[in-house]
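Support request, please re-run this one:
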Amino acid sequence: MTDSFSDLGAADPTTEPFWQACAEHRLTVQRCTACGNSQLYPRPFCLACESDALGWVEASGGGIIYSLTTVRLPVIDELKPPYYLALVDLDEGPRLLTNIVSDKASIGDRVGVEWRARDGLPPLPVFRTT
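Re-run finished. Output below.
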């Protein structure tokens, strides 16, 4: 793995801290130091107050399934159907589109982060019901 995931096309300057943390199996979110809002995906400004005073904080890795669907058609080789695709409300506030790797899942279930390895790229955060 390289020191910079930008070299691999996995990140830009705004998202690189997120991918660097993923390489260490740490889930992070942006937090505005002006108003305290947390957000994910990374942006150059706060969605709540438009400040550019953003930092990164480690997330607990926990959340609740907000929305869930079963994908039954092949999209990419790494995901063999059927599989779950969900919106997860992280404990820190942001909502993340992700894969649920459990055999059973329902809206409202608690989930915890796990990591899907990818060749030459940082791992992806995926979630399992707890």
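The beta strands are 28-32, 38-39, 54-58, 62-71, 83-90, 95-100, 110-118, 121-129. Residues 45 and 52 are 4 Å apart (CA to CA).
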